[in-house]
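Sample 1 of the test manifest.
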Amino acid sequence: MRRTVRIGAALAAALVVAGWWLTRPQTISAGDLPVREPDPVAGEAVFWAGGCASCHATPVDGERARGDAKLRLGGGAELDTPYGVFRVPNISPHAADGIGSWSMSDFVNAMQRGVSPQGRHYYPSFPYASYARMSTADVMDLKAFIDTLPEVEGETPDHSLDFPWNLRRGIGLWKRRYLSRIPVVQFDGAAAEVLRGAYLVEGAGHCGECHTPRDRFGGLLAGQWLGGAPAAEGEGKVPNITPAAKTLSGWSAGDISYYLESGFTPEFDTVGGTMVAVQENMAKLTKADRDAIAAYLKSIPPVE
Amino acid sequence: MPDMKIRVPLLLAALAIATSVVADDDPRHVRHELMEGVRDAAKPVGLMLRGEAEFDGEQLMQSLMVWQDAAGQFGGLFPEGTESGMDTEAAPAIWTDRAGFDAALAKWATAVDAAIEAAPDTLEAARPVVGPVFQTCKGCHDNYRISDE
């Protein structure tokens, strides 16, 4: 009897240790970073491609930030989702309230491993599962650009999530299943333009975070990549943007590129909803990059 | 007459649907039609700006006239009581921030008037005056139109 108890206790302890080990945050160290001088000018292009301002810019009078207010990254917006309320943190270069005291490896670990400087997991509402597909060089340039932006005071409160999502350590398991640097769509001998589009859409652009449906653990369903999904907030639907999409199938690559540049559809209706902020970001990319996004969207597997 | 109990509500429902269909002068209907006209007038001009159609100064002036006419009407087409219903995409902000809505509308009207005044006869001349017309029409939607997607 005593022996059984002892074995049971040993097994339980082993499970705890295994669970702890499986969920541990995995980071890279400063020595693993490429040796290069980060370029803030290149970083600005990454900033707009990444849509950082759409979540992190502090709202003005309860409305989304516009114009230069997009560069004040004090956070404070809230995302009311089925998992609970996520609160967007301050990522301005303020030393105490923002990320001004972060090292380059702190920043890369946040963006590409979803790990905070204190070694805690971030929730994937911060789309590091997409940003993981960016080049580390681009991430470094992005930090150099953010370092040039205004310091904004004020810490934002933590998320209020429902059980079991409030168990942060569990994100370690989530990452084992969903965090990968491998491209979502595998192309055989695609043109350089399509591959550039893939890099932008699947990485910094994090388009799949809204346009792809999720499973019950909040992971993206790769088989329905960009096939449209219920909106994370509210009751709306985010449209299918694969070649089988009801609307988008009739658009040429030029139409898609022009929409991203101007906000006008081929029928000259205007962009609406949460896509307005995204389109404004895309308008700041080069035409070549918008064309690349369009070429990629025309090349991916159709989702009916 | 046991059927009467069913028939009267049915009749009323049918009547309600019929009246909502024939209410052509309902502001929600009028502004929707007007907006579609604005969009249809934008297409040929947009294709010129995109470089996908030949520049056509006459077409451009025609579209500008459509917009000038619409800009003059929109201000009166959002009265109290038409905040919802008939699938309106008008945002509540039109009624909670009427001054802001009027200002956004005026910006568009001003841009349209300026483009008519300029009467551009080349694409190069059109771009700087027609661009603001497109931007102000989009800018107003950003605040004062809701999206179903």
